[in-house]
Amino acid sequence: MKALVLAGGFPQIALIEELKRRGFYVALADYNEAPVAKKYADKYYRVSTLDIDAIKAVAIEEKVDFLITVCTDQALHTVAKVSEDLGLPCYIDYRTALNVTNKEYMKTVFWQHGIPTAKFVIMREFEEEKISGMRYPLIVKPVDCNSSKGVRKCQNLEELKRFFADAVAFSRTNTAVVEEFVEGDEVTIDVYVENGKAKVLSVSNSDKIKGNDKFVIFRTIWPAAVNESVKRKIEDAAQKIADAFAIKNSPMLIQCLTDGENLYVIEFSARTGGGVKYLLIKRASGFDVVSAVVDLTLGKFPKLDQITAEQSYMINDFIYCKPGVFDHLEGFEELKAEGYLKDYYLFKWKGAEFDSINASGDRVAGYTVTGNTPEEVIAKQKVVRNRIRVVSSTGENMARTDLLVDLESKDGFLYSKLSAK
C-alpha cells in the first residue's frame, strides 16, 4: 500500500517511520528543496502542501491509498479536501478540516457555544469603526495561517493598520481577525477525543521571546502551573470544543491564556502541536498521537485507558539563529551521552539561510531536558545552554542562546511554574 505524507518537517519523520514500520511505501510532498524528512521517504515531490490541485495530481500519479499529515494546520485542510475528492480515507472530513483551520469560523463558534475567548472582529478590509469599542493592545492575525505567521501585537491605531495589511497578505482568503490582548500565562492543552469524549493528555506552559511582538515560542514546559479550578475549566473547554465542532475521534490542540482564575481560548485545531509536541505528549501521557492518527486514517480507533507520565518535569527549548547559513550542530550528542539532554532535534537542513526571527518555524533546532525536581532541570539546562553551538558555513556560532533566559530568573517566570506543581 502507498501513503502520501504532506509536509516534511521534524514531526513527519516520526510519521514516515511509523508508516514504514507498518509496511507502507511513502511519498512525501513539501515546498522546501531539502526538508528534514525528505531522506526518510521513498519518493519526494517538491510541491506546496497548500496547492490542492498539485497535491491531487501527485496522489493520482502515485496511486496512493491515502494521504496523511500530523502536527500541521493547513496541510490537514489539503489532506481532507484531496481525500474527499478522490474517495480516500481521512480521519476528519473536509468541512470539519476547513472549520478548524479558519479562525473566522472558529471564533464565531466559540462565541455561539459559550467558549470563553477574547473580544474580536473579523475584517477583509480595514474598517476603523469596527474596532472603535476595543481596547489596546490588540492582536491581529490571519484567519488561516499557522506557525505564528502574521500574528502581531498592536499598541495603537497606526500599528494596527500596518500589521493588519501584513496579516491579510499572509491569509489565503485575505482576511484577518483582530482581538483584544488578554494578559496572562499561555497554556497549551493537548487532547485526544475518543468517541466524542475529550481526554486531556498534557497541559504545558509556553514562553515567548521577550520584547518580540510576533509571539515566537522559545520554550515549552511541562507540567503547566495551573490550579484545580483552572484544570476543571480546561477540561470543560476541551469538551465544549469537541461538542461544538462535532469532533468524534481526533487529536486536538487548544491554545489558551489564564490569569490564574479565568481561562480564555485563543484557538484550536484538530491536530497535535508542531515541533516536538508529539514527543512531549508521549512522555507526559504515554499516548502515541502519531500512531493514533495512522490508526484513525486506516479506520481503526485506538483506546486511551490511562495517563502515565515518564518523568516529573520537562522543558523543550528551541534555538533561533543570528543571520547566516546553517552548517551543523556541535555539543548536542556529547550532552546527550552525559545525561544532560534527554534528546535533541534538528529542524533545518545544511545550507538553510537565516535572516530574522518572525515565526516559530524559524527555529533551527531544539532539545529536551527532564528531571525529577525543578532544581535538576535548571542545573542541566544551564550546562546545555553554555555548551551547545550552531555552526554557520563560516564557522561562527549562530545560536541565539541569549534568548534562552534562565529558568529561575525573573524574566524566566517558568521557574515558579516548575516549582508550583
Give the second-level CATH assignment, the architecture of the largest domain: 2-Layer Sandwich
Q: Numbering strands along the chain, what is their spatial order in the largest sheet? A: 13-12-9-10-11-14-18-16
Mean pLDDT, rounded to whole units? Answer: 91
Give helix % range: 25-40%
β-strand number = 19
User: What is the CATH topology classification name of the largest domain?
Assistant: D-amino Acid Aminotransferase, Chain A, domain 1
The CATH homologous superfamily of the largest domain corresponds to: ATP-grasp fold, B domain
Class from helix and strand fractions: alpha+beta
**Segments where pLDDT lies below 50 for 5+ residues?**
410-416
Q: Given this structure, which CATH class of the largest domain is correct?
A: Alpha Beta
First-residue to last-residue Cα separation: 46 Å
Rg for CA atoms: 21 Å
Number of helices: 12
Number of domains: 4
